[in-house]
From TrEMBL, chains A, B:
Gene3D superfamilies: Jelly Rolls, Winged helix-like DNA-binding domain superfamily/Winged helix DNA-binding domain. Keywords: DNA-binding, Kinase, Transcription, Transcription regulation, Transferase. It comes from Robiginitalea myxolifaciens. The keyword Disulfide bond does not apply. The lineage of its organism: Bacteria, Pseudomonadati, Bacteroidota, Flavobacteriia, Flavobacteriales. CDD domains: CAP_ED (cd00038). This is cAMP-binding domain of CRP or a regulatory subunit of cAMP-dependent protein kinases.
Amino acid sequence: MEESRCENCIVRQFNALRAMTKEELKAVSDSKETRTIRKGESLFEEGDKLGGVMCVRNGVSKLSKLSANGKDQIVKLATKGQVMGQRSVVAEEATNLSAVAVSDMEVCFIPKDSINSALHKNPDFTLEVLRHMAHDLREADDVIVNMSQKTVKQRMAEAFLYLQRFGVDEDGYFNLRLSREDISNVVGTATESAIRIISEFKKKGLIIASGKRLGVKDEKKLRDLAEGF
Amino acid sequence: MEESRCENCIVRQFNALRAMTKEELKAVSDSKETRTIRKGESLFEEGDKLGGVMCVRNGVSKLSKLSANGKDQIVKLATKGQVMGQRSVVAEEATNLSAVAVSDMEVCFIPKDSINSALHKNPDFTLEVLRHMAHDLREADDVIVNMSQKTVKQRMAEAFLYLQRFGVDEDGYFNLRLSREDISNVVGTATESAIRIISEFKKKGLIIASGKRLGVKDEKKLRDLAEGF
DNA sequence: CGACTCATTGAGACCGCTCAAGAAACGTGG
DNA sequence: CCACGTTTCTTGAGCGGTCTCAATGAGTCG
């Protein structure tokens, strides 16, 4: 039971909860609820009013938004230590994104009351949350520019570099197995286009691919491609 | 001199400064510096380390980011009451955006020290800043989806609806006069494409246009078009 | 009135999307 | 373990949207 207390949770180092006081952390730990989510299951849907935030202990979730033409755009992937739904809780609005597990997950649901009381009383914590959100906002700005100014091929190269951040096995394959459709939803393109580019990259020796197993082979060339050289 | 004090400044109602205490506001007011910026002049450049934030008193500034292919992408327009550079100050990083005036402006430069001390001591203020940033982040997510999933025509329709928010004159023309190039940088397209779509919209009676003067004519149809009908 | 910048229009090439069909991988129940 | 349906992946062909280049017209300011 010890390791199920937030006070002892390692992932806390990666998020804003580390700025909480012992007492606040205790309150969070007492009210939280650990959940196991199977791959493919939904954590919440766009438009839901969230009663709290989700802290990822293990696994990866895609955060996506449905567009008018019926396609999902994956805005970001949340992994160990990241907190989902904080935007919604802070702004007291419904979520603008849906969250679906892309691998089996373990998440802690933290009711918003314990978050809110800390937000009102502990400026260090609030500031830490603010810093994380500032970081997210910067990344979002970068994505906007990429989406509007780069070709699908460049964005695909970036996507591979992005996926690499979630870890690779001894052969260099990504730990995270995304379907071609999910990849195309990260890149913002048609699935067929994504597939064609993947096989092109493979032929050119930029990446390794065998079935669903994908990985980066020539990081430097991918980076150059993403920058437009 | 009275109206140059932040305590009496009306635009404060629109931003996070309204959550400051009287004392904090006094400190801000004593350290701030009012600047007049001519249309076309730059407020700061991508990569600059900002010594503080800019609060817009009057006029409009474009916040843009240069992409590798040499084109600016306008991420947002900041107008009366909006604070620029807070992301950079909060995260203690260089700015990720450049700011250039698109009309004559009056802005107040507020050194970061007075902001930072309030951020550490006044949770109400910090929370208010956080809420604003949460709102910005939501808008950024929406833009990402629009950029990746909508056609240039749809985005152009959205751009017109967006520009309308900055006010119109008695004839329905936008108060804000953007060049075709700036418009295309909002939409994220080539200038020629933007021009062609503008004349198409005019022909169809969706907008009014005479030279640089632009305006919305049929808001409903524009909205439908933006949504993909 | 010249030297700008900005707006407009045309034509051609290319990129990326869609539709359609087949191959491979996966899961499930017999 | 196999047969089956279902999903996912792959490839081809064609169309349409968007970009680029280039030339012309219009507006602005000394």
